[in-house]
Design a protein that fits this description.
Length: about 140
């Protein structure tokens, strides 16, 4: 081999090495940019999923809050009645008991007696609902 051929061979090997190195660098940078894009897309998809889950949770909490607010209003309305109303219901129940006993004395008053006793029982149930809670029951 001549010196020119050896130099040409060295030049060709160096050029091939330079070409492989340039291809490697371009492929590496392209792969890196594609990887970054895919990573961003995956992260966006996960973020969108998290947002959907949080919105569903928020909707559930809103519905639960509305339900609790309605329940609270009902409790406040129920607690508007107190001891005077309870005493009134007990007095009504006592008068209904007396009326039921009076109707029981008549032969034709059986239906009135039954209705009066039923109303008496209902008045007692309502009075029991208005009874203040005891400290031992709360614990």
């Amino acid at each position: 081999m001549t010196a020119i051929q050896i130099c040409a061979l060295i030049f060709l090997i160096a050029f091939a090495a330079l070409l492989v190195w340039a291809g490697y660098k371009m492929g590496h940078s392209d792969g890196k940019s594609v990887g970054i894009k895919e990573g961003d897309e995956i992260q966006r998809a996960e973020s969108a999923k998290t947002i959907r889950e949080l919105r569903a949770s928020l909707d559930f909490i809103k519905a639960d809050h509305r339900h609790l607010a309605q329940y609270s209003k009902r409790l406040q309305q129920a607690s508007a009645f107190g001891e005077p109303e309870r005493q009134t219901l007990l007095a009504i129940a006592e008068k209904l008991r007396i009326a039921a006993e009076t109707f029981a004395a008549f032969r034709t008053g059986k239906k009135l007696e039954r209705e009066t006793r039923a109303m008496h029982d209902q008045a007692l149930v309502l009075a029991a609902l208005l009874e203040p809670a005891k400290q031992g029951d709360a614990a």
